[in-house]
Amino acid sequence: MEFSVKSGSPEKQRSACIVVGVFEPRRLSTTAEQLDEISEGYISNLLRRGDLEGKSGQMLLLHNVPNILSERVLLVGCGKERELDERQYRQIISKTINTLNETGSMEAVCFLSELHVKGRDTYWKVRQAVEATQDCLYSFNSLKTRKEEPRRPLRKIVFNVPTRRELPIGERAVAHGLAISTGINTCKNVANMPPNICNPAYLAEQAKKLAEQYSNIKVEIVDEAEMERLGMGSYLAVGRGSKNESLMSIIKYNGGDDEANPIVLVGKGLTFDSGGISLKPGEAMDEMKYDMGGAAGVLGAMHALAELQLPLNVIGVLAGCENMPDANAYRPGDILTTMSGQTVEVLNTDAEGRLVLCDALTYVERFEPESVIDVATLTGACVVALGKHATGLLSTHNPLAHELLNASEQSGDRAWRLPLWDDYQEQLESPFADFTNLGGKGAGTITAACFLSRFTKKYHWAHLDIAGTAWRSGANKGSTGRPVSMLTQFLLNRSGQEQGE
Ligand code: BES
Ligand code: MN
Ligand code: ZN
After folding, report:
1. Which of 270, 379, 441, 463 should be mutated for ligand 1, with most atoms under 8 A from CB?
2. Is the terminal CB of the chain with fewer CB neighbours within 10 Å at N or C?
3. pLDDT at residue 501 tops 60
4. Residue 245: which domain range?
5. Per-residue pLDDT tens over the stretch 360-386
6. Pocket, ligand 1, Cβ cutoff 6 A
7. What percent of the chain has pLDDT over 70?
């Protein structure tokens, strides 16, 4: 897809389609009014006859509108003008893109980016439009023998900005939106890949591909032999029941001063989580291929970062592993020695993510990180608490937590903070080891983070639980590409890159 920005009046556009908004009830947006005037009331006539009310998401495609240079005009219902908010804006863009794709317009000039969205500037509207478009056009069909593609797909879209003065802002928004979408697509592609293909070695391959593509990215792979030497007893235990070797991929992006301490992103990369000996029930178990969503998100954020070439040092860690039941598998009751030296009594082999992450979190101490953010499909409890809308955020460092909440607010990739008070720590007490891997009844997301907090004392740390947000179930099953947008926004903010006006 090709994106650009322009500042012009609608009647002067010569395109396959121009897209303008109509508000409820039957009220023309400024640009729609301009078209109406030039076409001598053609559009207002249609509205008067009741063809379009202007309800959010309504579409009316017109051909051969009098005196208009473009072949088509797409009227898009935008709801009540005063109520147009961020979510509606994105939805309207998505519907528009789907309609354009189905109706054979291969290019379009879109004026929806000029609509007033409460509290949002041109930068935001254009960037969101680019991201929403790319999200809409994504499909994962590389494993289908017969691919369904639109006959005349949308190839080129121009977003209009109100004044010429805003063109540079719009261009920056397109560039950022494209880079983020590239990262999101990388995340989706690897997350959607089935677990018989996407194993820890496959994750490592994707990391190496990034290093081949960008000269300031280097990749190292930590294999089981190396983990053994490092004493990563907890990580190794989880992978012991699998034929696929556990592999931890270290992706180093060097864009900042050599002395600058890196930001470290650690992703849970369970390429399949069967639960192990504490086997999961069969229903929807296929979705546990998405248990590497954290690693996919980190890979995607690294890709976006490399596209943006931000002046930062960032290290991405993909903690690849597979949790399977087997004669050699670890069991409930086992006591493991973690890389930190702390011992853990395993009470449930399905609480494996924290066992992999804890050793990865100890491993990254060697980088003397400025801060560490881990990303994980860690707990079903997070889905109960926040559903599919918000990522769970837990942190022992308030400034870092606020930075991430800000980034989520700016990017529309939402997160909500849960407490991490010491009161919860006692739920991990064990009679036989330093602590257990199971928090018992209540606050499962918090006790999982409590577990991790015992391995993150040496740096500023935040944890993102993406169990509810990384993928969609049901008819529209698939990776969402979250939280690539939030993470990239965080990095953009850290780099001090100017965004809006
Ligand atoms: N990967 C799962 C968490 C999960 C479950 C994410 C469902 C999304 C949807 C994790 O490894 C797990 O199994 N967690 C257990 C922890 C429990 C045994 C303490 C859970 O949430 O049930
Ligand atoms: Mn599990
Ligand atoms: Zn898991």
Report:
1. 379
2. C
3. no
4. 180-494
5. 999 999 999 999 999 999 999 999 999
6. 273, 291, 348, 350-353, 377, 379-381, 383, 438, 444, 467
7. 99
pLDDT in tens, 39-67: 999 999 999 999 999 999 999 999 999 99
Q: How far is the CA of 14 from the centre of ligand 3 (A)?
A: 52
Residue that terminates a domain, selected from 111, 126, 161: 161
pLDDT at 500: 62
**SS (HEC) of 21-50:** EEECCCEECHHHHHHHHHCCCHHHHHHHCC
Q: Ligand 1: which residue has its CA nearest to atom 13?
A: 350
| Residue 221 tokens, joined | 């792979």
275 Cα: distance to centroid of ligand 3 (angstroms): 7
Q: Is residue 499, in this structure, part of any structural domain at all?
A: no
pLDDT at 149 > cutoff 90: no
Query: In total, how many domains does the chain have?
Result: 2
Active site residues: 280, 354
Atom from ligand 1 closest to the CA of residue 353: 11
Atom number of ligand 1 nearest to Cα 291: 1
Residue 282 alpha carbon to ligand 1 centre in Å: 14
Mean per-residue pLDDT of the chain:
97
- CA dihedral in degrees (380, 384, 385, 390; nearest 10)? 80
Q: What is the pTM of this model?
A: 0.98
Distances (CA, A) of 343 to 232, 431, 443: 11, 12, 23
What's 412's domain CATH number? 3.40.630.10
Interatomic CA distance for residues 106 and 232, integer angstroms: 53
311 and 395 belong to one structural domain: yes
